[in-house]
TrEMBL record:
Domain named DUF6879: residues: 7-170
Stated name of the protein: DUF6879 domain-containing protein
Pfam families: DUF6879
């Protein structure tokens, strides 16, 4: 397995032509840079917009160029602290132009959707994210096999059909 460098992974988000879609399937992501922001959120002092400003700029630039960023997050209920943190932060991603939707994990599994995280670019390339047992990202592998890409496109369409907007999800599961 050949993993991308961080620079090559980052370039995926500026080099796609039409759509970037993400399956997020984990209940948490162990990212060192987020730990302080999560701690502040739990203490009632959130500032997710500042933390993610570079990402929001990337999304805005892509959306201005006519591209789409989309995501479906599979989440366990009751919501974990990390999921609640992500729901609050998603309002800023959505404001930047990314469309993040949610689905309860039980329903996600009933539909037979993938149990791994990927980015799907232009319905042609998969970026399969590899994690360790402590939810740390180990790296990303590019997959272009047509059968695997097609299957993920089909899963994306099913997930998008059944997932609900952040606001609709929060109405049912308040943070």
């Amino acid at each position: 397995m050949n993993l991308l460098t961080d620079e090559d992974f980052d370039q995926l988000f500026t080099s796609f032509d039409h759509t970037a879609f993400r399956f997020e399937t984990r209940d948490r992501y162990n990212v060192n840079a987020e730990q302080e922001h999560l701690r502040r959120f739990l203490a009632g002092e959130p500032d997710p917009e500042r933390r993610w400003r570079p990402w929001h700029d990337t999304v805005r630039n892509a959306v201005t160029a006519g591209k789409r960023f989309m995501r479906v997050r599979a989440v366990s209920v009751p919501l974990s602290d990390y999921t609640r943190f992500g729901l609050v932060g998603a309002q800023y991603n959505n404001a930047a132009g990314e469309d993040i939707r949610y689905m309860e994990r039980n329903r996600y599994r009933e539909l037979g959707l993938p149990e791994h995280d990927v980015w799907l670019f232009d319905s042609q390339r998969l970026a399969l994210l590899h994690f360790d047992d402590d939810d740390r990202l180990l790296g990303t592998e590019i997959i272009t096999d047509p059968d695997q890409v097609l299957r993920h496109c089909q899963w994306r369409d099913v997930a998008w059909h059944y997932a609900v907007s952040r606001d609709e999800f929060i109405a049912k599961h308040p943070v």
